[in-house]
Amino acid sequence: MGELKHISGLSVKASPLFFGTAMGPLLAGEDTSFALLDSVLMSGVNAFDCARSYGKAEETLGRWMRERGCRDRIVLLTKGGDIRNGVVEVNRRVILEQLSRSLEALGTDRIDIYLLHRDDRNTPAEEMIDTLNEARRKGLIRLFGVSNWTRERIEKANLYAEKNGLSGFSVSSPNFGLARQMKDLWGGGCVTLSGPENEGDRAWYRENQMPVIAYSSLGRGFFSGRFRSGDYENARRVLDPYAQRGYLYEENMARLKRCEALAKRYGVTVPEIAMRYVFGSGMNLFAVVSTSSAERLKMNLRAADEPLSGEEIRYLEGEEE
Q1: CA angle (145 as vertex; 140, 151 as ends), nearest 5
Q2: Residue 27 or 299, more confident
Q3: Does 11 fall in a domain?
Q4: Which of 26, 49, 68, 99 could bond 18 through an S-S bridge, CB–CB 3.0 to 4.6 Å?
Q5: d(CA 215, CA 38)
Q6: What is the average pLDDT across 30-50?
Q7: Does 221 reside within a domain?
Q8: CATH of the domain at 269
Q9: Number of separate domains in the chain
Q10: 122 is in which domain, residue-wise?
Q11: In a domain, 256, yes or no
């Protein structure tokens, strides 16, 4: 269940799910947070998604890794880059400062996958590539990539890397899921692959098979099954303000209704169908999930082994009734 997948450049295979550490339970006491992380690893999920901006998540994850002695068995991803009031700053100084702080907080000598959290259009991509290659040569990071970058910017940066004999961005972390991201949730330039308007980008990722580590694949709870299609009142109780801003729209309610019908047909849950949709994309995809339920993690892992067919995907998207 949830067969581990090889990511080029890493010695440890990664589970198809990355556990997202931007969640409240990891800010609780060590007994609670360590028990949750133990259950994640025991469920078969060995990849962890973190960021310098996720409160004390890096510190908690670092203490847990040292206490359990499991650093060499997991795939560790973290992200850096300043985002303040929607303004992004990612340059050589910020990258090196935040990478140093992440290494210290995590208590490790290297990070498996290091991502730039947003794209700073005021900083040349060449500067970022040069800086990350320097960190890689020093052994501080194994792979590097980007979160919330357009494919055009990735291509431009990687063309520079290729021409200069450098490593380029080899991992990308955009939003992707059944819920269309209608507005930027947090500011700073969120990038999504969802929706018909982004089919060209999905085709690009399918062709080159760059690993896609998709965040908010269940729409930050939109496809949690905790409210029914058309029930806006309960949806507002379940979804935080960011999820409401990005996903609470009529089109997504229509997608939820079709998801409910397919879940009923197969005798499974709404989130399981939504996750099967994600893994049916044809991209080299890993999904970031955050949950305190070990059973939900196992369900999500099962979904990775049972992707939906093209016909089922088109039905959920409203192309086939």
Answers
A1: 165
A2: 299
A3: no
A4: 49
A5: 22
A6: 92
A7: yes
A8: 3.20.20.100
A9: 1
A10: 17-316
A11: yes
